[in-house]
Amino acid sequence: MEFLHYFKSRQGDIIRLLKDLVNLESPSHDKDAVDKCSLFFAEELKKTGAEIKRIPQKDIGDFYTAEYKGVKKETRSKPILVLTHSDTVWPVGRIEKMPFYVEGQKIFGPGALDMKAGLAMLIFVFRTFKQLNISPQKNISIFINSSEETGNRNATNMLKKLGKNAFCALCLEPAIPGGALKMQRKGRLVVKLEATGKAAHAGNPDLGVNAIEELTKQIQNIHRLKTKNVSVNVGVIEGGTKPNVVAEKAWSLIDIRFWENSQKDKAWSFLTGLTPHFKGAKVKAFSESFTPPMVKTPASAHLFDHVKGFAETLGITLESGRTGGGSDASVVSSMGVPTLDGLGPDGDGIHAKNEHLLLPSLLERTALLAEILRRL
To answer: Distance between CA 173 and CA 331 in Å, rounded?
Structure first.
């Protein structure tokens, strides 16, 4: 079966499917919205023969797993684990300012690249398998995460559970701009830094201790953590109640990225050892979420070489690289599972107003995914 030719002849259908997914806006923190997108994705997979299981969640979107049986019937055969996520960073209503559209060879829309395109690829591959009566060699297990963009302990636990029984893992996050797969990723530590002071009337501020001022001093101090290999981003800051009240509480969310866990340990030690700048103030660091770094292991490198051979049969040259962003692939890879990330299409503008993917790459990556799932 010449998958690339087949998908090129059906590019209109793939684009329409992607449009449906993008229009189902699904920000991580909007449970109703992200549930609708996850359910649509799961139901489309069910139509192609998948066994679907819903894992309800209280405060975030529900998780789903989808299972396909391969031609090898050994009961102990480990499945290929495919990692997807239905959530995006874009709020409901963004589609009105950033409508889905195709311009030349580019497809634009909020969440189109990260990672609604990966969802469309997977649906279309299994539609094709069903229509052409193609069966994968191995069992395939799919995880649909509703909170990949924010990180969630329940999701991490699901990833670890599924990873224990995986032959390998394939993550449909977008490629590195230029098309390379992501074989290395920075780890991510999200920290909540909380400052506590003493409230007072703004007319007599010396009677109080301003938590906002304490927090800003600490944030300036935290930037000492920045190095060539460690990045620090203060993403959220809140505090105080009214302009005429000395702020009693203030807090910030800080994103720290690193290539090695030893760098994370050093940063965490620094944060937990912070001392107040102002007399009477208190400061404390809390770990909100942690994603381990993704390391290029020998097992993952061997898997890459295998898949690179599949790509060559399609006329595709596959390269590998590294990126500062984290993903679910990092969790599974840290368990020793051979992992490939960035199997989604090439594009640019992730989390930005110019988010877009390249149509030729979408068709190529859909064909490559079909080849991998059929032959691996």
So the answer is: 14
